[in-house]
Amino acid sequence: MIVWLNGTFGAGKTTAAQELLDLLPGSTLYDPELLGSGLRLMLPAKRFEEVDDYQDLPSWRRMVVDTAAALLTEVPGPLVTPMTLLCQEYRDEIFGSLAARRIPVRHVLIHAEETILRERIAHREETPGDPEGSASVRRWCLEHLEPYAQALDWLKGDAHVVDTSALTPRQTAERVAEAVRTGAGACDIVQTPEPTAETLAAGVLLFDDQDRVLLVDPTYKPGWEFPGGIVEPGEAPARAGIREVAEELGIQLPRAPKLLVLDWEAPKPPGFGGLRLLFDGGTLTPAQIRELLLPGSELREWRFVTEAEAETMLPPVRWNRLRWALRARERGCPLHLEAGIPVG
Fold first, then answer.
1. Mean pLDDT of 74-82
2. Which pLDDT value is given to residue 293?
3. pTM here?
4. Which among 149, 128, 281, 132 is positioned nearest to 202, based on CA atoms?
């Protein structure tokens, strides 16, 4: 298990984490910030100039998960992780990947009111004997108060909140320990096993009466996606699409959807690639749209979008697949793609 202590700088995550080690038997401190420091030493400086923060590096997010899994083979756990994580997409990627490894997460928000935070930051001495260095850290902490305020809505909806405004670090740790014991803050993300070989996946495009396409926002991986998923062994791809639409959205398709695109996705480590099929699920009626259901452990949101809007929301490989699927739908003829390029 991982006890992830989230919150902005000055909330008291690190001091609470140290106290928490005494209250959770077998616990170990796990600080992903050390991974960021290591990447600064190993990656070219030019790469860091391309991002605002090491959390923007896909390598850091993957290392957070891989290192946690490795540590849990050495120690009984839980891992206590005091780490600010304000980007919901990064939270989805990291927690979703942990869920795929069957590593449960207790997400706890260590919160304090802004006036308290500012007072704590003002008295923070990061580097004893180095006033200029400490002042730089204080400025950096203050700059992150606004992003924290912007993230509060999703954080409070996702995590168990412990308000530290009037608590000592020990009292904060006691509240967190009690929350862990009662199961508070559990992230009920769907546990999708990581593939170990090429996979076959079926997606279904659904449209409204304006010919906009339906996209969904999974909780367990970053980026928007089409309804659908991995085809199970012995399952027909079209039937898999029907099953996934029913499970994800509560919609029963009356007939097998028509194939629009078959795309071979090249392996790109750590992914194995495989065949990706997109089907035309047809136009939903207003009544069907009103009855759309979302399983909270799997999907966070759905949205009908135009082709131009989809381009800004989908990762390039999915956008390219959608683009050709829409052309195939217009022409009434399915397309065979290899790595997103029509062949034959």
1. 94
2. 82
3. 0.65
4. 281
